[in-house]
Each structure stands twice: as C-alpha cells, then as structure tokens.
Amino acid sequence: MEWLVSLVGAGLVMVTLRDLFHTLWHPTRHGGLSRLVMTALWRLARRFRPRRRAVGLVGPLAMVTVVGMWAGTVILGWAIVYWPHMPGAFTFSPGSRAAQEPALLDSVYLSLVTVATLGLGDISPGEGWLRLVSPLEALIGFALLTATVSWVLQIFPALTRRRVLAIRLALLRDADPTTQQIDCTAGALLLDSLATEVVRVRIDFTQYAEAYYFHDGGDHSSLAATVGYAAALAERGQTAGRPDVRLAGDLLAGALQDLAAILDQRFLRTGGAQADIFAAYAADHGRTS
Questions:
Q1: What GO biological process terms does the UniProt entry carry, in alphabetical order (predicted)?
Q2: Burial of 215 per CB tally in 10 Å (0-12, 13-18, 19+)
Q3: Tell me, what's the pLDDT at 126?
Q4: 194 near 233, Cβ under 8 Å?
Q5: What is the pTM of this model?
C-alpha cells in the first residue's frame, strides 16, 4: 500500500512534467493543463466589464497561474511520495521538533524545502532509494525555475513581432495605397516583407500559443484589428500588372490563409472561411477588423 501511494505521487509529478514539456518545448494543438487554465481565464475575463481592462491582465496572470500550478503539483506529488515512508525512512536533526508533527505536514515541508533547493537539513532521507529521489526533486525544481525564466524571455519577443506587424498594417491602412501605387518594385518588396512578418507571427502562434491570450492595447497595435487589411493588400497585389507584384500578392495571401488556419485550429474553431476567421479573431479580442 505504501508503494502504491508513492506511485500516485510520482504519477502526479510526471503529469506536471509532461505538461511543462508540451507547453514550452513541444507545443501541440491538443492542449494540456496549462492551455485549459489559460483558456478558462480568457473566457472568464471576457465576461467582465470593463472588458478590455480585465482581458489585458489575462496573459500575465495566466502565466503566473500556470507556473504556480506546476510548482504546486510538483511539491504535492513529491510530498505524496514521501508521505507513506515518513518518519521511519528519514532522519531528523538533534533537537528538531519535526518528528512530532503529522507525517503529511513533514512530507509537504520536506518537498517544499527540497524543490526550492534550500537544503535546511533538519529532515533528510535515510533509506537508499530516498537518498537518490530527493536530489532528483531538487534538480526538477531548478529546471522549473530555469524553464519559467526562459518562457518569460521568449514570449515577449513574440508579442513584439505581432505588435510591430499590427502597427505597420495600421499605418498602411491610414495611407491606403491603391493598386496602381503597389504595382511597382517597391510594392512587390512591401508585400513580400509583409508575407514574411505574417509567417513569423504564424510560427509564434504555433510555438507560443499562450501569446494569443495577451491583449495588444490600442487598435493600432492590435493584430486582430488590422489583419483584415492585410488581406485587402494581398488582393490588390494579385490584380496588379507586374508579375513580381502578383507573385508577392500570392505569397501574402498564402501566408494569411495559413495564419487563419492556425488561429481556427488552435483557438477559434469556426470552421469558416478566412474572412470569417479573422472577424472571429477580432471579436474575440474586442476589436472590429
């Protein structure tokens, strides 16, 4: 029975590590605990008024919540591993009152101290297998801290790329170039560079799905509000006279179609055409495309 309880705790740790792996290093559209938490917070925030103020906090709060969930389940899982073997399989420092506490409380305390790599030493494993398992928890705690820092450092460049594209599209929308103005070498370069930026954002939504739940602020920096104009530019490029401009227009149209497919598969699930998907994306972020 003791080993069965310990295996339950080990299973809880493995579920957490799997979720961390699929969130940070091998994202899939099948989701996981982190995606469920972020989606739930996003939908909850959209019900509040004023809507934009609440939605603007979802991204940072979701990341904090997910990291807290990872840390909490690792600590709890390892505490369950220790619990059936406490206190007999552990040694206590002289004068320590820890052995007088309930076994579960000592197990949670030992797990918390170990995952934080504090190494206070008042409780230490005595049996051989526990002396191997306990340092492993410390390694996982260090890996969790490193993964959290790298996650934060990776997500904000992705947000910057998305907002730069949004602002660029907003400026083009204000200038509103005609087909004749685009039908030149500069127009081909413009459409080609936009296609490249759209592809980068598409990759960001694949690699960092949590970026979807970050609010972009004003309409000029919101891709949800400006992406529809990119489709209009692509259409103008496709009807231009110069073949290089038409090719660039086709590239931009293809990149936008790919972006719409990713948005629909991972977040919106409308099953509609590109225009419908971008309209749903704008509505989900409180914008009009």
A1: monoatomic ion transmembrane transport
A2: buried
A3: 84
A4: yes
A5: 0.83
